[in-house]
Design brief:
Layout: H1 2-25, H2 29-42, H3 46-50, H4 55-61, H5 64-78, E1 81-94, E2 97-108, E3 111-119, E4 125-132
Antiparallel strand pairs: 1-2, 2-3, 3-4
């Protein structure tokens, strides 16, 4: 009887484990498009990133050179891009259009930066902006590459690292 119960539980455990991994793999297509845009900037493929802009923003910027300037300014302040952290998608309606605002938290060498990418209904980049991370302090255990704070005789070190970048907006 015990063996039969175990055999019945194995498919259930496998199904739960497999469905959980599918949930992690399934990602909002707007997040994927925003991350692809950010990766193009990171890889200095500014012309390809420029081709992802909607016509209004593309007309304002005229070429990928302004994208390069904005990204390079961010990297000068925040250090090299390291990884994507959390993201949030907000749906905005205005002027008869629907936009998806992807708020992507990114880890850079010197700290965390929010990168906001607004996508229009076709998935093209309608606007983007970099800003300081303004959320709660990130727990030390999540920051594995940080050195431990020196012991200065206090019981806790609640001071968060300073944000790395200013609110740069190329448009």
């Amino acid at each position: 009887m015990k063996r039969r119960r175990t055999l019945l539980l194995l498919p259930l455990i496998a199904a739960v484990a497999f469905s959980g991994s599918l949930a992690v793999l399934a990602q909002d297509p707007n997040v994927e498009k925003a991350q692809e845009f950010i990766k193009l900037l990171e890889n200095k493929q500014f012309h390809k990133a420029y081709l992802r802009l909607d016509s209004n923003l593309g007309f304002k910027l005229k070429s990928g050179e302004k994208l390069a300037g904005a990204w390079n300014n961010l990297v000068r302040k925040a250090g090299a891009f390291e990884e994507f952290r959390s993201q949030d998608v907000e749906v905005l309606n205005g002027n008869g259009m629907t936009y998806h605002l992807v708020k992507q938290l990114c880890k850079f060498e010197n700290g965390l930066v929010n990168i906001m990418v607004a996508l229009d209904g076709r998935g093209t980049v309608a606007d983007f902006k970099f800003s300081n991370y303004d959320g709660p302090p990130v727990p030390v255990e999540e920051e594995t590459d940080k050195k431990p704070a020196p012991d200065n005789g206090t019981a806790s070190n609640s001071e968060a690292p300073p944000p790395p970048a200013g609110g740069d907006n190329p448009a």
